[in-house]
Amino acid sequence: MKILESGENYLETILMLSQKNGEVRSIDIVNEMNFSKPSVSVAMKQFRENGYILMDENGYISLTEKGLAIAEKVYERHTVLTKCLMKLGVSEETAKKDACRIEHDLSDETFEKIKAACECKG
Questions:
Q1: At 21, is the secondary structure helix, strand, or coil?
Q2: What three-state secondary structure class fits 11?
Q3: What is the DSSP secondary-structure string of 46-91?
Q4: Is 27 helix (H, G, I), strand (E, B) or coil?
Q5: Which of 35, 47, 63, 92 has the CB geometry, 3.0–4.6 Å to 68, for a possible disulfide?
Q6: Distance between CA atoms of 50 and 34, rounded to whole angstroms?
Q7: How far is CA 17 from CA 8, 74, 118, in A?
Q8: Are 103 and 81 in contact (CB under 8 A)?
Q9: Residue 94: which residues within 8 A CB-CB, separation 6 or more?
């Protein structure tokens, strides 16, 4: 199953929230992404059914190995691209927004060349 950009954003958000808060529930994702509760609920059900997340009896969400691999890849791209854009003189706010837009569409080859050229690490 190919993960769409929105799916990558969900998984990246789960990773970031788990790093920041230690625990993640659907309501945390709703608040972070400004999505509706029903939208997040549907997405979490699909991720659970496709093996990207686990949800315990208390509603806490964790990434599976498969989900974590995608989330870490997207997060690294976001971090590296943000740093590279800021090195070029782009404001932090704009760099973060632009990195989010382009992190999903770059080939691995192009990303690796950008990372090397900017000497940026995730």
A1: helix
A2: helix
A3: HHHHTTSEEE-TT-BEEE-HHHHHHHHHHHHHHHHHHHHHHHTT--
A4: helix
A5: 63
A6: 24
A7: 14, 14, 27
A8: yes
A9: 85
Amino acid at 13: T
What are the phi and psi torsion angles at 2 (to 5°)? -80, 130
* Residue 54 CB contacts under 8 Å (≥ 6 apart), including other chains: 48, 61, 62, 63, 64
Quote the CA–CA distance of 24 and 36 in Å, as a whole number.
16
Which of 67, 32, 69, 18 is CA-nearest to residue 47? Answer: 67
Q: How many CA atoms lie within 13 A of 110 on its CB side?
A: 7
What is the tens place of the pLDDT at every residue in 61-75? 999 999 999 999 999
19-70: per-residue pLDDT in tens?
999 999 999 999 999 999 999 999 999 999 999 999 999 999 999 999 999 9
